[in-house]
Amino acid sequence: MPTNIENICCIGAGYVGGPTCAIIASKDLDISVTVVDLSQPRIDEWNSSRLPIYEPGLQDIVEAARDGSGLNPVTLHFSTDVKGAIHRADLIFISVITPTKTVGVGAGQAADIKYVEAAAREIAEVATSDKIVVEKSTVPCGTAEILRDIFDAVGDPQVRFEVLSNPEFLAEGTAIADLLSPDRVLVGSEGTPSALEAASALADVYSSWVPRERIITLNIWSSELAKLSANCMLAQRISSINSLSAICEATGADIQEVSHSVGLDKRIGPNFLKASIGFGGSCFKKDVLKLVYMAETLHLPEVAAYWKAVVDIKNGKRTALAGTTVDGKRIAILGLAYKKNTGDTRESPAIDFMGSMLAEKATLAIYDPKVSYNKIIHELGELFGHEAVARYVKPCENAYSACRGASTVVIMTEWDEFKTDRLTLPPALDLGDLTASRLTTPTVKRADSVSSGIPSSQSEDRSSCDDDGLLSPGTPPTNTNSPAPELINQAQALFDSYGPKRLDWARISTLMRRPRLVFDGRNVVDASKLRSLGFLVQSIGKKSEGVLRR
Ligand code: NAD
Ligand code: UGA
User: Where in this protein does the record put region Disordered (predicted)?
Assistant: First the structure.
């Protein structure tokens, strides 16, 4: 069994395989890491300057390891030569998807591990030297045994295969930080001398940057189940707080005050208590369902029902939001990704919501900073029919074009740019009086008005926005009626302190049709500030007002 790892192969160049291997390649300069995938376009993107996934900090790390930098060698490779990479590797990560089965026994709940099995089969067929095979994918407890059977049945009897479980705990949007400073790294093995040797070799790989005390060696079944359990417990917290947010909406309690107060209890803690329209992403739902299915097959119906409720509560919340009359109206959807700092839309709560809106023939004007026009059209077309999407879905380049003419704005993703935390203009620039026609900046003709898809009327709209249609530092609004210098200076100071961009909600208020509704599915806006701009606001976990109260 290899004890000193010099060559790593990772099967699956996705959200886990790509970032994880980029970190290993940047930390273990003696190891050559090759990430392989069946998808040529995906590998081409990993080899280009436009990576297939967005993850803060990833680009620099990939480029340095992939292209070499300074005295550092090239340690990271992306390829479709799966066989070649397996052949050379001492250690192979399997990092392919493990979605929910859609047909057959357990459809709708059980994990479909056919991709993991296919990868194992390929390894078994190709390997001519001993291999450490590492389950990186999230799998049901017991999968290692299935892999062992494949190696015993298909592999060369002269070749030894050691299967380890090393589940990944990174979250999208914070993948690099999570990988660089993990709470723990689990290395599960079968506990035989050879397995422990393999586990030690894998632990050595991580020890280049992870403190030894955070690298936990444990039995392989515990490792598999610990990963599933972590996701289920996290999902359960969100469903718990979301269930309470429904009570808040009905009673007048405020979910943010409740979660803050509850989270101050050290035994509970403040994380994962943000109420939302429901958790999304490729993992929580499927992983909770994996546990549900395991409990069912183990004849533990109460356990299955308990965990099933975690998924059901998530779904209930979406339905509640989708209750208004929208036929023929334009709805601006701000955010399509399942959370901020990622372009991933898998299981995004926005998708189901949009499905119900499309069924009612609403026009959906969608803006997300990291989800491209093509992705929106393609993914929604696959789900809801290309004809309906061509007719009713309008991907927009910025929030302003999405909101123009809309009667409702729905915030689906908590992108920072949607926040109102900096919407505090001085009294003389009273937001209540603010209209787009009274806001001016030095008159700059927007050269991008056509290419950006912004109608010409908007391109002439003189406001404090940059070419992206977003507020940016150093572009203060000035009031044409009373340009008192001290106020302008005050405004300038405010805008200079802005840092990251924020939407100009005052401007949005001038673009929308009345009554102007904002559904805040993430509690990112300060409802009172928006109300002072003339919006009607409904926030998750807060009592609604006026016409919104049903
Ligand atoms: P992904 O879809 O982004 O990537 C999987 C890749 O594997 C795809 O590019 C696919 O083309 C490739 N692939 C599939 N079969 C292959 C084969 N036989 N040979 C070569 N390539 C193959 O998936 P992901 O989000 O990276 O998730 C992978 C696993 O990691 C899942 O089990 C998931 O539950 C788990 N996980 C995901 C995250 C996350 O944040 N996305 C976090 C922790 C764990
Ligand atoms: C989650 C886990 O956090 C990771 O540890 C795990 O590795 C990963 O799943 C996985 O196995 O795939 P991820 O799904 O990327 O990571 O993102 P999270 O930050 O966990 O958010 C999941 C969903 O919950 C998002 O839709 C998010 O908006 C929502 N959420 C999160 C809330 O609604 N409230 C919160 O307080 C936190």
Answer: 445-485
Say what the pLDDT of residue 546 is: 52
Give yes or no for residue 435 having a pLDDT over 80.
Answer: no
Whole-number Å distance between alpha carbons of 211 and 393: 49
Q: Which residue's C-alpha comes closest to atom 28 of ligand 2?
A: 339
- 339 marked among binding-site residues: yes
- By mean pLDDT, which of 175-189, 348-362, 482-496 is the weakest? 482-496
Sign of CA dihedral 409, 412, 413, 414: positive
Q: At 356, give phi and psi (nearest 5°).
A: -70, -30
Identify the nearest ligand to the CA of 21 by its number.
1
CA distance 36 to 392: 38
Contact 201, 132 (CB under 8 A): yes
How far is Cα 326 from Cα 358, in angstroms, rounded to an integer?
A: 9
Whether 21 is catalytic is no
Mean pLDDT across the stretch 288-317?
92
**Tokens 């723990």, residue located:** 184
Active-site hit among 283, 396, 403, 465 = 283
Q: Is 279 in the pocket of ligand 2 (CB under 6 A)?
A: yes
Two tokens, residue 217: 């060696």
Determine how many CB atoms are found less than 10 A away from the CB of residue 395: 23
- pLDDT at position 72, please? 87
How far is residue 248's CA from residue 246's CA, in Å, rounded to a whole number?
A: 5
Question: How far is it, in rounded angstroms, from Cα 252 to Cα 276?
Answer: 17
C-alpha 30 chain-centroid distance: 32
Question: What residue type is assigned to position 87 of the chain?
Answer: H
Nearest-CA residue for atom 29 of ligand 1: 137
